[in-house]
Design brief:
6 strands; binds s-citryldethia Coenzyme A; single chain; mainly alpha; 3-stranded antiparallel sheet; about 425 residues; 18 helices
């Protein structure tokens, strides 16, 4: 990259210059890698509000305009014109596949959907009532115990087969986590089925009868997976990149991403947002919305309007709009268009978007605000919502991890700190301690 200019910093009587780089679109970056060497000071940016950790060609977000592009394509167009595996190919390879490339990609992914039978026995070690995300972290991490033939991250072929295995096996493992929780037998994948129909059958099929596919519901889930596939350097993607920067194998890195995604401030928000709606409904529904909003505005209440607000989007999350449309389609298909939770969510959104507390802080619905309602209508239990999110985000994590491994600028991530602890002092022997 050639610098487009320079930035000058004056500090403690010294002046240092730093190159400024520009991307295709979006904010410039000031390269401060020589800051500590040149001034003896670190930058200080808890939560990385003003820090670019890498350069990337995968996803672009314009938070002010509410724009999301995967490899330059607007999410609205991808969600309407493509299926999830087509978007997986795009995120991994940088271009949309032609018919032959798509067919080959689908064929290869489909033939990696089964898991080792010993992996199925791992589930027996969990309590049946374990949170499925706890099972996901354990089982996905354990994949590295089964694939000694593809753990060399410097080998592009190992990275490719690991990508296929992870994209293909996550739906199988998510469905197994659900079946284990339900006490029902695992349902094996069927190669004759597409990605989403295969997943829905493994989730809701039983050996006692044939599973009846619903194309509207399958298409809705496929779109939900597209909306969640990647999102720039979010917390879980940054976790995967940091884990990968040490040379850890792809299965361990993806397991670290799943662990991070579980948090209620991140991917766990969809579970928390639906629970919030259910709780308000129980307490009186629409009549209680004003009271809830008041709590969400009160710092001391510990209550947040889950599914609202975003570190980057200071406008409507484009995924939330598409999620709301998908919610209406699914509710109509299952005959629940009058779902009280949808009405409640829309009332909450309307009030919040007219309330200065939310408007002044630019808090809008994010991808998680409606996703719980539509997943519940698809028959997916609340505790499984973040598992579905991790299944969708796995391709984004892999694409970002691959990009990091092949980036000549990348090295092991090792941030520093502002130390505010005790200055150097001597140990007082136990006998003399008060
Ligand atoms: C995802 O990064 C990504 O890209 C993530 C994601 C992805 O695809 O990977 O988009 C997925 O994680 C979406 C976000 C899901 N999380 C939630 O919906 C949880 C609720 N939202 C918040 O916790 C919060 O908005 C965050 C965590 C999403 C963003 O937090 P920031 O950027 O650190 O902002 P902040 O917490 O400093 O909030 C700024 C102000 C604060 O008030 P003041 O101190 O200025 O008075 O807004 C308030 C916050 O208290 N605020 C909220 C709020 N979100 C922020 N107040 C009430 N309800 C909320 N939801």
């Amino acid at each position: 990259m050639d610098p487009k200019g320079k930035a000058t910093l004056s500090y403690a009587g010294k002046t240092a210059e730093f190159p400024v780089y520009g991307g295709t679109i979006g904010p410039d970056v000031i390269d401060i890698r020589k800051l500590y060497g040149g001034t003896g000071a670190f930058t200080y940016d808890p939560g990385f509000l003003s820090t670019a950790s890498c350069s990337s060609k995968i996803t672009y977000i314009d938070g002010d305009e509410g724009v999301l592009l995967y490899r330059g394509y607007p999410i609205e167009q991808l969600a309407t014109n493509c299926d999830f595996l087509e978007v997986c190919y795009l995120l991994l390879n940088g271009e949309l596949p032609n018919k032959d490339q798509k067919d080959k990609f689908d064929y290869t992914v489909t033939r990696h959907t089964m898991v080792h039978e010993q992996l199925a026995r791992l589930f027996q070690g969990f309590r049946r009532d374990s949170h499925p995300m706890a099972v996901m972290v354990g089982v996905v991490g354990a994949l590295s115990a089964f694939y000694h033939d593809s753990l060399d991250i410097t080998n592009p072929e190992h990275r490719e087969i690991s990508a296929y295995r992870l994209i293909a096996k996550l739906p199988t493992i998510v469905a197994m986590a659900y079946k284990y929780n339900m006490g029902q037998p695992f349902i094996y994948p069927k190669n004759a089925l597409g990605y989403t129909p295969n997943f829905m059958r493994m989730m809701f099929g039983v050996p006692a009868e044939d599973y009846k596919q619903n194309d509207v519901l399958n298409r809705a889930l496929d779109r939900i997976l597209i909306l969640h596939a990647d999102h720039e350097q979010n917390a879980s993607t940054s976790t995967v990149r940091l884990a990968g920067s040490s040379g850890a194998n792809p299965f361990a890195c993806i397991a670290s991403g799943i662990a991070c995604l579980w948090g209620p401030a991140h991917g766990g928000a969809n579970e928390a947002a639906l629970q919030m709606l259910i709780d308000i409904e129980k307490e009186g529904g629409l009549a209680k919305v004003g009271e809830f909003i008041k709590k969400a505005k009160d710092k001391n209440s510990g209550v947040k309007l889950m599914g609202f607000g975003h570190r980057v989007y200071k406008n409507y999350d484009p995924r939330a709009k598409l999620m709301q449309e998908t919610t209406r389609e699914v509710l109509a298909e299952v005959g629940a268009e009058n779902d009280p939770l949808l009405k409640l969510a829309m009332a909450l959104e309307k009030i919040a978007l007219e309330d200065d507390y939310f408007v002044s802080r630019k808090l809008y619905p994010n991808v998680d605000f409606y996703s719980g309602i539509v997943q519940r209508a698809l028959g997916i239990p609340t505790s499984m919502f973040t598992c579905i999110f991790s299944m969708a985000r796995t391709v984004g994590w892999i694409a970002q991890w691959n990009e990091m491994i092949s980036d000549p600028e990348q090295k092991i991530g090792r941030p520093r700190q502002l130390y505010t602890g005790a200055a150097k002092r001597d140990v007082t022997p136990m006998a003399k301690r008060k």
